[in-house]
Amino acid sequence: MEAAGLIQIGLQVLPLVTTGVTEFIAWLEALRTNLRQSGEWTPEQDAAFTAALAAKENDPRYQQDPPPPAA
Amino acid sequence: MKSFKLAGLLLPLLAAVAFIALPLLPGCATLDPNADPFVVRTEQVQKQADATFDFLLGVDNADRGFWRTNAPAFHNFCEYLRTPIPVSPTHNSPRILAIERNVQDLKVQYKDNRSAGNSNLLYQISSELRLLVLQGNSWSNIVSTPNR
Fold first, then answer.
1. Which of A20, A44, B116, B122 could disulfide-link B106, Cβ–Cβ 3.0 to 4.6 Å?
2. ipTM > 0.85, yes or no
């Protein structure tokens, strides 16, 4: 599984990370948690995931660059 | 006799290394007997996509001007993920959220009715998401260690 390999690589490059250190560690932790999933999501977890996706529609990270000003 | 002494020295050292390193190593969990491996695998891809794209788009969003100038391929990848696409006649959604939503909807549909047709649809769309995640993972390791 590629997630396990990514964690190994991530731990190796961790000392070199200069951009978004906290987010990088959070990403590694998410991959690690992901590997430990043993069962299907419950309907509540499915609903929460759908709601979280809907909430991201207005997240500034997910918005495109504004169009360049007209000349 | 000498080898016994060496073993006596090495064993505590190995135990100490294992004690420190083992919690850091990722371990795959065993599947519950009633869990559908296809669903669990899809959900793992979904969570991985969620974490990866939050991270990547957050890094790009923190300094878009820098990435646009110094790593245009990365910035263009992020903009590709952000491009609004129609998800209904009256609503557009960023491309990556539309794909993630599509996977989620098809997965719930498959859970309700585990037919071959639903399975094929879910496999197709989750494979597309997985490819984007793989590409995103490559960028994750590249952009988090730039020479600024």
1. B122
2. no
Q: How far is CA A10 from CA A4, B72, B139, B143, in A?
A: 10, 23, 12, 12
- The tens digit of pLDDT for each residue in B80-137 reads 999 999 988 999 999 999 999 999 999 999 999 999 999 999 999 999 999 999 999 8
Shortest CA distance from B40: residue in chain A: A40
Of B24, B36, B50, the CB nearest to A40: B36
Among the listed residues B54, B50, B137, the one whose alpha carbon sits nearest the alpha carbon of residue B101:
B50
Give chain B's domain count.
Answer: 1
How many CB atoms lie under 10 A from the CB of residue B27?
A: 11
* Angstrom distance (rounded) from CA A41 to CA A3: 19
| C-beta of residue B39 within 8 angstroms of C-beta of residue B28 | no
- Decide if B110 is inside a domain: yes
B22 part of a folded domain? no
CB distance B67 to B74 below 8 Å:
yes
B46 contacts on A by Cβ (under 8 Å): 49
pTM of this structure: 0.79
CA B57 centroid distance within chain:
13
Q: Let me know how long chain A is.
A: 71
Residue B103 belongs to domain spanning: 34-143
Residue B130 lies in a domain: yes
